[in-house]
Design brief:
Layout lengths: L15 H18 L11 H17 L4 H11 L10 E6 L11 E6 L6 H7 L34 E4 L2 E4 L16 E2 L4 H10 L8 E6 L5 H10 L13
Antiparallel strand pairs: 1-2, 2-6, 3-4, 3-6, 4-5
This protein binds adenosine-5'-triphosphate (ATP) and magnesium ion.
Length: 240
């Protein structure tokens, strides 16, 4: 299909092969792991549903600083040589996802991007790709940090290396599980909206998180963003 707008030089976001392969991977996760579209449900699905639900209760009890979790993940990420590891936050009142959110937080990171393993891990609970690697400098290890974004967004989206994926706080309509069931987003205008929010003359970084904010969290997120002091960079060695 010919697109009626331009992405400038954002080749990664137009790489049809990467998108097709990402799409196949997401379909595989949905069918193999969550038995979506299969006649027989996976007997472990109910266990997972309970585990994820109690995890969410825990997340909501603690006031987890979701921005810190995103920053830590960016610090753990891989970067190509010569790239200055950068994480950028953009808050916009534009409804990027068309979900009716009063504001959206966009997070841009110029890392190498999500691998299959990273995607498998984020579509799980407690299956960190960094387990046992603390001594090698990784901060993450539990495999739940990212889920703290659900405190502020009921449907976080990830764009990276061909993946265009949405997760939902609402239990998935087919398997009843929340937070970890990926949904491939095929409609494309979102990307042009993201480009516009980032600055249409700039090249989009490889990984983008799109967080349409819950109406009652907009102010809190704004406050958390302005509370981020440059000094926190002292605790990180990569991120600039
Ligand atoms: N920005 C990112 N780029 C690539 N992969 C990521 C990114 N953020 C998360 N991941 C992948 O998703 C997994 C889950 O992330 P999450 O933050 O939930 O857990 P963690 O960082 O492994 O451990 P912790 O719970 O201690 O934060 C990671 O192990 C990593 O493989
Ligand atoms: Mg983490």
């Amino acid at each position: 299909m010919v697109e009626s707008y331009s992405y400038g030089n954002n080749q990664t976001y137009q790489d049809e092969e990467a998108i097709a392969s990402a799409k196949r991977h997401i379909k595989e996760i949905r069918t193999k792991k969550y038995s979506i579209g299969k006649k027989e449900a996976n007997p472990l699905t109910l266990d997972l549903h309970h585990a994820v639900t109690s995890l969410s209760a825990e997340l909501y009890q603690k006031d987890i600083h979701f921005l810190m979790e995103l920053i830590q993940n960016a610090e753990d990420n891989e970067y190509e040589e010569g790239v200055e590891p950068t994480l950028e936050f953009v808050m916009t009142k534009k409804d990027i996802t068309g979900s009716g959110a009063p504001a959206t937080l966009l997070v841009f990171n110029n890392e190498v991007g999500f691998s299959r393993k990273n995607m498998d891990s984020i579509c799980s609970v407690g299956r960190s790709t960094k387990k046992g690697k603390r001594q090698r400098g990784f901060i993450g290890e539990k495999g739940i940090g990212f889920k703290s974004v659900f405190l502020v967004s009921s449907q976080p989206w990830i764009f990276s290396n061909g993946y265009r994926v949405r997760f939902t706080e609402e239990p998935n309509q087919y398997c009843g599980i929340r937070y970890v069931v990926p949904e491939f987003v095929t409609r494309r205008p979102y990307l042009s909206r993201i480009c516009n929010a980032y600055g249409s003359n700039k090249i989009l970084p490889t990984t983008i998180f799109v967080l349409p904010l819950k109406p009652d969290k907009v102010e809190a997120v704004r406050a958390q963003l302005s509370d981020l002091h440059p000094e926190i960079l002292l605790f990180f060695s990569k991120i600039k």
